[in-house]
Amino acid sequence: MREQGGLTNIRRRIGRAPARRRVLRGASALPVLAVLLAGCGIRATEVPTDFGPAPSRVRCSLGEPEPSARESRGMPVRVFLRCGTSLVTVDRSVRVPEGAADSARRVLVAQGLLDQLAATPSAAEREAGYSTAVPGGTTVSGPRPGDPADTLRLSSAPGDLTAHALAQIVCTFSDSAAAEGDGSVILGGPGEERPLRYACTDEVRARPGGERPPSSEVAGD
Predict the structure, then answer these.
(1) Which of 218, 206, 158, 207 is nearest to 182 (CA)?
(2) Cα dist. 31→39, 69, 186, 207 in Å?
(3) Which of 26, 62, 85, 113 has the most other CB atoms within 10 Å of its CB?
(4) Cα→Cα distances 210→99, 162, 173, Å
């Protein structure tokens, strides 16, 4: 009986041995797994928070211009450029000959503004997110016979321009010496269509791609 009891105990110990070895092998593997994970840059208990370096310039915000850029070489003006989903003003200057008549001066100012709108934004402006939709080579002229005296006729019909381009032109003109003084501007195209009065509203400045500048008919002289 004692011999049989002893044999039974021996069998039980032998049966438990593989389970103990499996537990020990699993425990010994944990430090190795931790080293491998650490070597791969993975931390099981931390959430990665490194999303790369911070942007070098705040979007739609320009730093101070260089000293040479501060020196105005013409009449200071503001033009509206695209940035994000809205229009933002940027300081510019245009050259206007001294002694020009008022009618000629309006056209010269308007052409200078168009040239600035169509110009490629500077590297600093592009870095800050500025862009323009006004096509290069766009020109402007004064009124035709029968047009209101303050009419500006573009080389492209306003209706053919994109919503962004028309919004930039209308808001820039209406905020300048090219406007009538009431915040609106009368624009026509190269054809025989009657010019219309356009206004730059808060909605247009906020969503130039979705809100075309409101227009209304004007009576001729």
Answers:
(1) 218
(2) 12, 62, 78, 58
(3) 113
(4) 41, 10, 20
Query: Rounded to whole angstroms, how far apart are CA atoms 208 and 201?
Result: 10
* Three-state secondary-structure class, residue 66: coil
| Closest listed residue to residue 218, CA positions, set 119, 163, 172, 152 | 152
pLDDT per residue as tens digits for the range 93-104: 998 888 778 878
Please state, in angstroms and rounded to a whole number, the distance separating the CA atoms of residues 124 and 118. Answer: 17
Question: pLDDT tens digits, residue range 126-166?
Answer: 999 999 999 999 999 999 999 999 999 999 999 999 999 99
Q: Give the H/E segment covering residue 199.
A: strand 196-199
Tokens of 105: 């001066």
Read off the tokens for 192: 């025989």
pLDDT at 22: 47
8 Å CB contact between 132 and 122 = no
Dist CA 156 CA 211 (whole Å): 20
Per-residue pLDDT at 43 exceeds 80: no
Any bridge partners for residue 89, and if so which? 80
How big is the chain, counted in residues?
221
Say if CB 81 and CB 131 are below 8 A apart. yes
Cβ contact 94:212 at 8 Å: no
